[in-house]
C-alpha cells in the first residue's frame, strides 16, 4: 500500500528474492508503481481495488503512514497484513502515539516531551504556560515539519490553532535538543525482534538532511537506551513489521521519544549499503514470515538526503541534473534515485550513501560529495 520511494525500495528487495509485487497508489506515475509487476492506481479506500489487491497478494504491507487504517483493516479480512491497522492508526495520530509512549514508559525507561492535547476551545483555554515556548503540531498528516508552528505565547498558540482550522493538535514543549537519533526495529509474528544500530540524524528545515551511523556518532549509553526503548515500544503494541522510533537527546543527556513510523524510515537508508541486510530486506522477511537475523553493519556510514533543491542552480527555475559523475568518482559513494521525473524544492528525490573502511575516510568522502552537490558539510563531530 503506497507507491512512494519507500515502496519502491521494498519492491526492489522483494523482487530480488523472487517475489512478485503489486502496488496500490492513486498516482499513475508513483515511484514504486512504475517498477512493480502490478500497479493498481486507485484511491486507498476503493473497494474494487482493495478486492483485486487481496486476490493478487499473499500478504500486504504499507510504505506510507497515511494510508487510511480502514483500508488495512478491510484487507486484513482477506489476507495477512503487517503492520496491523491498529498499529498504523496509532502512528498516524500524534495524540494516540504520545499516549502509547506514555503507556510504555515504565517498560521503555523513557517518556516523551511534555505536551497537551488540543481538540477544542476548552482544551485550549486549559493549556498551561509551562508548555511555552512550544510547538503546535497537527495530530494527523504532518511530516517533514509540515503541520507545525512554533508558538511563544498563549495568544500565539490560540492564533496558531485557529490557523489549523481548529483540527486536533498537540502542543509540545520546545526542548533543548543536544542531538536526534532513531532506531529501526523489525519484529516478527512470533514476537522475536531484531534492530539496527541507532542512527544519529540531522534535520534542516524540519526535513532529514544527514544520517550518520558509526561508533562515534552517539554516546554508547544513549544508543543502548534508545534500542531498549524502541524494542519496548514495538512490544507494547505487539507490532509486526519494521518500525522506526525517533528520539531526542536533551542537553542534560536524557532521552525522550519523539515519534514513530510504522514502516522503513529515511534514517535507515544507510542499511542498503552498510549492512548485510537492509531495512527493506527485513520488511520482506517480517511480511513473508521468514526468520529475522540480527543485522550486521559492516561499514561506518553517512547518508546525505538529496532533495529537489539540488536540481536547481542558485536563483534559477531551470531544472538540471546534479554533478553525478563527479560525485560517483568519490570512492564509497552509492547513489539511490527514486525515479521521480519532476524535481521540486523540498521533495525527496534520492539519497547518497557513503561507506568506507573507517570513519575518517567516510567523513572525508561525505564532505567531498557534499561540496560537489552544493550541500553544507554538516556531519556531526
Ligand atoms: P515530522 O513528522 O515532521 O518529522 P517531528 O515531530 O519529528 O515531525 O518534528 C520535526 C523536527 O522538529 C524534529 O526532528 C526536531 O528537529 C524538531 N522538533 C520537533 N519537536 C520538537 C520539540 N518538542 N523540541 C525541539 N525540537 C523539536
Ligand atoms: Mg520526525
Automatic annotation (TrEMBL):
GO molecular function: 5-(carboxyamino)imidazole ribonucleotide synthase activity; ATP binding; metal ion binding; phosphoribosylaminoimidazole carboxylase activity
Gene3D superfamilies given in the database record: 3.40.50.20, ATP-grasp fold, A domain, ATP-grasp fold, B domain
Record-annotated ATP-grasp domain positions: 102-288
Keywords (A to Z) from UniProt: ATP-binding, Ligase, Nucleotide-binding, Purine biosynthesis
One of the record's GO cellular component terms: cytosol
List of residues binding ATP: 94, 137, 142-148, 172-175, 180, 203, 258-259
EC nos: 6.3.4.18
Main enzyme class: ligase
Keyword Signal in annotation: no
The keyword Phosphoprotein is annotated on this UniProt entry: no
GO biological process terms, semicolon-separated: 'de novo' IMP biosynthetic process
Signal peptide: none
Recorded catalytic activity of this chain's protein: 5-amino-1-(5-phospho-beta-D-ribosyl)imidazole + hydrogencarbonate + ATP = 5-carboxyamino-1-(5-phospho-D-ribosyl)imidazole + ADP + phosphate + 2 H(+)
Assembly with partners or alone: Homodimer.
Role played: Catalyzes the ATP-dependent conversion of 5-aminoimidazole ribonucleotide (AIR) and HCO(3)(-) to N5-carboxyaminoimidazole ribonucleotide (N5-CAIR). Catalyzes the ATP-dependent conversion of 5-aminoimidazole ribonucleotide (AIR) and HCO(3)- to N5-carboxyaminoimidazole ribonucleotide (N5-CAIR).
Similarity remark: Belongs to the PurK/PurT family.
Protein name: N5-carboxyaminoimidazole ribonucleotide synthase
Record organism: Pseudacidovorax intermedius
Gene name of the encoded protein: purK
Amino acid at each position: 500500500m503506497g507507491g512512494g520511494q519507500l515502496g519502491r525500495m521494498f519492491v526492489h528487495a522483494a523482487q530480488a528474492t523472487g517475489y512478485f509485487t503489486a502496488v496500490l497508489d492513486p498516482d499513475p506515475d508513483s515511484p514504486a508503481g512504475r517498477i512493480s509487476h502490478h500497479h493498481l492506481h486507485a484511491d486507498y479506500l476503493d473497494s474494487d481495488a482493495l478486492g483485486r489487491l487481496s486476490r493478487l497478494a499473499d500478504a500486504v504491507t504499507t510504505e506510507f503512514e497515511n494510508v487510511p487504517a480502514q483500508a488495512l483493516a478491510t484487507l486484513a479480512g482477506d489476507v495477512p497484513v503487517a503492520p496491523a491497522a491498529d498499529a498504523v492508526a496509532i502512528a498516524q495520530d500524534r495524540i494516540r502515539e504520545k499516549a502509547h509512549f506514555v503507556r510504555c514508559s515504565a517498560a521503555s525507561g523513557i517518556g516523551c516531551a511534555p505536551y497537551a492535547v488540543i481538540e477544542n476551545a476548552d482544551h485550549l483555554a486549559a493549556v498551561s504556560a509551562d508548555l511555552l515556548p512550544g510547538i503546535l503540531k497537527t495530530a494527523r498528516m504532518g511530516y517533514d515539519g509540515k503541520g507545525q508552528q512554533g508558538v511563544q505565547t498563549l495568544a500565539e498558540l490560540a492564533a496558531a490553532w485557529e490557523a489549523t482550522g481548529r483540527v486536533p493538535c498537540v502542543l509540545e514543549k520546545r526542548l533543548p535538543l543536544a542531538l536526534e537519533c532513531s532506531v529501526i526495529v523489525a519484529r516478527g509474528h512470533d514476537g522475536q525482534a531484531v534492530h539496527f544500530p541507532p542512527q544519529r540524524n540531522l534535520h534542516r528545515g524540519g526535513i532529514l538532511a544527514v544520517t550518520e551511523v558509526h561508533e562515534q556518532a552517539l554516546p554508547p549509553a544513549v544508543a543502548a537506551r534508545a534500542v531498549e526503548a524502541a524494542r519496548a515500544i514495538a512490544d507494547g503494541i505487539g507490532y509486526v513489521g519494521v518500525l522506526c522510533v525517533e528520539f531526542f537527546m536533551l542537553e542534560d543527556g536524557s532521552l525522550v521519544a519523539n515519534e514513530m513510523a510504522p514502516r522503513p524510515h529515511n534514517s535507515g537508508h544507510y542499511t542498503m549499503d552498510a549492512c548485510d541486510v537492509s531495512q527493506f530486506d527485513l520488511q520482506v522477511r517480517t511480511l513473508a514470515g521468514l526468520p529475522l537475523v540480527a543485522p550486521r553493519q559492516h561499514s561506518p556510514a553517512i547518508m546525505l538526503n538529496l532533495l529537489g533543491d539540488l536540481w536547481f542552480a542558485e536563483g534559477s527555475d531551470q531544472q538540471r541534473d546534479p554533478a553525478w559523475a563527479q560525485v560517483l568518482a568519490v570512492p564509497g559513494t552509492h547513489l539511490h534515485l527514486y525515479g521521480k521525473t519532476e524535481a521540486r524544492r523540498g521533495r525527496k528525490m534520492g539519497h547518497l550513501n557513503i561507506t568506507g573502511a573507517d570513519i575518517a575516510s567516510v567523513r572525508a568522502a561525505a564532505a567531498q560529495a557534499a561540496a560537489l552537490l552544493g550541500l553544507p558539510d554538516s556531519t556531526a563531530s
